[in-house]
Design a protein that fits this description.
Number of strands: 0
Shape: elongated
Helix content: 55-70%
Order of helices and strands: HHHHHH
Strand content: under 5%
Radius of gyration: 19 Å
Distance between the termini: 60 Å
């Protein structure tokens, strides 16, 4: 009779880690354009999220990640999360 080790019975799956997609400079410029159409500037996004202007610029240039900035930009543009927005922008730009 094969016994299953106790460690395997108590093992829980690891939660999936959220990984935000990086954007290219062209995608970042498109996001800035969409923000300006919605009446937002990079400085306004920085003020609302409580980070510096440079941090928002770095996220839009694809050099850094910031969950707060990414979530705020996605919400402003009407998307559920950053990855959904980036994938939608990529499909728009590919057409």
């Amino acid at each position: 009779m094969n016994a299953i080790p106790v460690m395997q019975l108590n093992r829980q799956p690891k939660p999936k880690r959220y990984r935000a997609l990086y954007v290219t400079r062209q995608e970042g410029n498109f996001i800035k354009y969409k923000l300006s159409q919605a009446g937002w500037t990079v400085t306004a996004v920085a003020d609302v999220t409580g980070v510096g202007h440079g941090d928002v610029s770095n996220v839009l240039a694809g050099r850094r990640h910031s969950r707060a900035v990414e979530a705020r930009i996605a919400a402003i543009l009407g998307y559920q999360d950053w990855n959904q927005m980036v994938l939608a922008i990529r499909s728009i730009m590919a057409a």
